[in-house]
Amino acid sequence: MAGTGGLGELERAVMDVLWDRGDQGPVTVRAVADALAERKPAYTTVMTVLDRLAKKGFVLRERDGRAWSYRPAAGRDAYVARLMLDALELTGDREAALAHFARSVSNPEAEALSQALDRHRKSG
């Protein structure tokens, strides 16, 4: 997944459908459109969004008969991490931004971050 920043509203809704499926395998345009029925997007709109997401590197697609099936290129956690890294690029003082972030998280989040950093240090 490229560092392409945020997703548009419908792109995010489509990605949520794909991410929420977990490891259930690739999904067709029709299945995504059906999952978004509350929003009432046109089938062709969903097809265009999925094509755009594939070109941006957010989804992988494969032939499923005459149609395409789609699955996320990476998990939601990887997307959020990319957003956080992109946000750090906006600051002239990454250390200050990280320190402010660390002060802003809850104790359980701080502990999770500390454990992740420990694992990162041990892995080299």
UniProtKB/TrEMBL annotation:
The keyword Transcription applies. GO terms for molecular function: DNA binding. Transmembrane segments: none annotated. Pfam families: Penicillinase_R (PF03965). The keyword Transcription regulation applies. It comes from the Bacteria. InterPro entries: BlaI_family, WH-like_DNA-bd_sf, WH_DNA-bd_sf. Keywords: DNA-binding, Transcription, Transcription regulation. GO terms for biological process: negative regulation of DNA-templated transcription. Belongs to the BlaI transcriptional regulatory family. This is CopY family transcriptional regulator.
